[in-house]
Amino acid sequence: MAGSGYVVMVVAGLLFAGIPVVARTVHLRRERSGRRALAEGIEVEAGCVDVFTTRSGPDGGGRGPRQVVLGFRTLEGREVRFQDLSGVPRVVGERVRVRYLAEHPRSAAVTDADPFGGSGRTLLLVVFPLLFGGAGLALAGFGAWQWLG
């Protein structure tokens, strides 16, 4: 591989290692606003308006995680829908209590469970960065070693 190929390998490795940093930042921002909604938010009743699963795999034959969409009306009368991240199985029409911030109603969080999925999501947020970050740094390190050595 020519010298420029190793530069590309270093850049690709660093970009690959950056994926978990971005994912973790997005998750922390969402979790922080949800926790603030639980602590300071306005409590209202929401309803489960949609439940669906996504397809995964190259042929679309695998089933992805179950997604739950909750909807509620703010005190001002605005309709809001948001994704329930608690991981609690729900059915369409089910009623649940949520808290939301008046300035950011889409950052609502359910009050009946861990609104962020408990240990399953925490495990994902530890394993994912280690795998992707480690592989990206290894690729970048190997490319730099070959390029400079």
Report the major sheet: 5 strands, antiparallel
Number of helices: 2
Overall mean pLDDT: 81
Structural class: alpha+beta
Helix content: 40-55%
Walk across the major sheet and give the strand order.
3-2-1-4-5
* Helix-strand pattern: HEEEEEH
Report Rg: 21 Å
Counting DSSP E segments of at least 2 residues, the number of strands comes to: 5
Terminal Cα separation, in Å?
A: 13 Å
Strand portion: 25-35%
Give the count of structural domains.
1
The parts where pLDDT drops under 50 for at least 5 residues are: none
What's the overall geometry?
A: elongated
Summarize this entry quickly.
By secondary structure, this protein is of the alpha+beta class.
SSE diagram, text form:
Layout: H1 3-40, E1 42-56, E2 62-73, E3 79-84, E4 95-101, E5 104-110, H2 118-148
Antiparallel strand pairs: 1-2, 1-4, 2-3, 4-5
Could you characterize the architecture of this molecule?
The chain has one domain (3-148). Helix content is 46%, strand content 32%. The chain contains two helices and five strands. It has helices at 3-40, 118-148, and strands at residues 42-56, 62-73, 79-84, 95-101, 104-110. Strands 3-2-1-4-5 form a five-stranded antiparallel β-sheet, with helices on one face. It is elongated, with a radius of gyration of 21 Å. The model has no long low-confidence stretch (mean pLDDT 81).
Key attributes of the depicted protein:
5-stranded antiparallel beta sheet, 46% helix, 149 residues, 5 strands, 2 helices, single chain, alpha+beta
